[in-house]
Amino acid sequence: MAELQFAAAVAERSYEVAFEVAAGEVLAILGPNGAGKSTTLHVIAGLLQPDSGMVRVGGRTLTDTADGISVATHDRRVGLLLQDPLLFPHLSVQANVEFAPRSRGAGRAAARRSAASWLAEVGLTELADRKPDQLSGGQAQRAAIARALAAEPEVLLLDEPLSGLDVAVAASVRALLRRVSSQSGRATVLITHDLLDVLTLADRVMVLDDGRVAEVGAVGEVLAAPRSMFGARIAGVNVVRGEAAGPEALRAADGALWHGRHDVEPQEAGALVAVFSPAAVAVYRELPHGSPRNSVQIRVAELDADGARVRVRGQEQADGAPGLAADITAESAAGLRLAAGDDVWFTVKAQEVALHPAAR
Question: Which residues contact 93 (CB under 8 A, 6 or more apart)?
Fold first, then answer.
């Protein structure tokens, strides 16, 4: 597969962005509404002509305003997957997926074989004859994924494809996209507001703000030390990285064992991330008897009061990730008489901790 090179300016939208995505890499684009995320995908897909700029995939130039090049959308070999599956309502699932290879010139038999292969890949073989209105939301989204991949795109664009799905379906689709992206070797651009998508799918993160690149870097680097307001906001949950230590546990870099729950089938080996809210954390001076399953000793780095809430932030984790945080009431903070440098215990119930496969 080929890398993606992108640079574009759209004066009307105060947009000027440039970046590259290596072959086989997943770049997650974050940012507030109106930051330029959809503009980026539309320029890559050929749905929007920039005032100036270029889009190249490997050795092919798709857009070059200086040379007057603008390849038509249907000839770009770019797959665009949106939140709405946009399946053709009058066609069966099989015919919907066959449409993709047929649209790029494949014969009937080849299109049928390709569709069957991708429907098997997404687990929809038995539903191939159904119409879209006979599918659940998750099944329709998997059909849309199969159609996008059956076109054999050189670049895959994902515009919040998991938004609006329930937890179980979103987890299933996320696992599928993670597997496909890791095996295909194509450049992938993912727009999302969900930290789990970033943690489980992306290699790098780019934050857009007001049509400009606010920051870009490896997932761990951006989440550990976000330089933009939006990056800091999306990194506001607690994230612990480690390796699977049994079907429902993670072993962190400092040796601490974290127990939690899986939204997909538990894995007993491989990299995991544990995610939980600061509001789910209780703080104690001494290790409490009969405490929740997860208890870790933390050295307080800072305290931040916001009205009736006090955020207690620990020192950075052993692997350099941001320190764990707990949100407690001002009354509790006063009773604990906390100060930077104090050693305290953070406890959180196992059912509040979500375990997810980590990105590559």
Answer: 87, 119, 124, 127, 128, 129, 130, 131, 132, 135, 143
Predicted TM-score (pTM) of the model is 0.74
Mean pLDDT of 142-155: 91
Helix (H, G, I), strand (E, B) or coil at 103: helix
Per-residue pLDDT, 243: 92
**Residue ranges of domains in the chain, CATH in brackets:** 4-234 (3.40.50.300), 238-357 (2.40.50.100)
| Chain centroid, CA 104 distance in Å | 29
C-beta separation of 214 from 53 below 8 A: no
Supply the DSSP string of 212-245, one letter for each residue: EEEEEEEHHHHHHS--SHHHHHHT-SEEEEEEE-
Classify residue 109 as exposed, middle or buried by CB count within 10 Å of its CB (0-12, 13-18, 19+).
exposed
Match 């687990």 to its residue by tokens: 123
The vertex-195 CA angle with 189 and 201, nearest 5°, equals: 45
Integer Cα distance of 248 and 262 in angstroms: 7
Q: What is the pLDDT of residues 26-44, one digit of tens each?
A: 999 999 899 999 999 999 9
Instruction: Enter the tokens of residue 328.
Output: 């407690």
**Neighbouring C-alpha atoms within 13 Å toward the C-beta of 104:** 22
Q: If we measure between CA atoms, which residue out of 104, 103, 99, 133 comes closest to residue 119?
A: 99
Calculate ∠ Cα 48-182-167, nearest 5°.
Answer: 80
Strand partners, 21: 4
Residue 177, Cβ neighbours under 10 Å: how many? 23
Cα 86 to Cα 138: distance, rounded to the nearest angstrom: 13
